[in-house]
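thought: fold this chain, then report.
action: predict
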Amino acid sequence: MKKIILSISVLSLLFTGCNKTQDPFEISKQHVGLLTDSTLVKNLKTVFLNDSINEVINDNGFLGIGKSIEVFDNSGKKLLILNPEYKPDTTAVVKSVQIIDPRFKTEKDITTQSTFKDISSNYKISRIDNLINSVVVTVNEINASFTIDKQELPANIRFDMDLDIEAMHIPENAKIKYFFINW
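observation:
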């Protein structure tokens, strides 16, 4: 009798655990809200059923023409910018997602309104790249790249392109300009 009750208890726990609904604003290594790393571009309208999708053609001169897809909520607020891989057929998937709306957050509560301290306290920094106007902090654990404007850095290191910027060079209160999830 005890085995039957135990078995029923375990099964009921399994069934209730499987009914977890996906948070439409949660970010992890394999998904951003309801969008996954294997979502086909042709299926975006079903993923963002209540949102508006707008394709933007970008002519980057010598880099060629690319396509971005902007996602807006039903009130017109921009949520995400999606960058699909280029494929001439219908199997193209989204390769990177730029997070715009601060409601999107990682499992450790990192949003577009977070600071460098929030990132470094919650994740292992994999790499820091020194660009012309910004630094890019990469976190492989969640496939994320966080961009911080160089205006947030001390004046003595803003203009040195040869400097290998390390975490200690970035002030804790430096704000995230934007961030990407890359697949």
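thought: worth noting. The CA atoms of residues 143 and 182 lie 5 Å apart.
final: tokens above.
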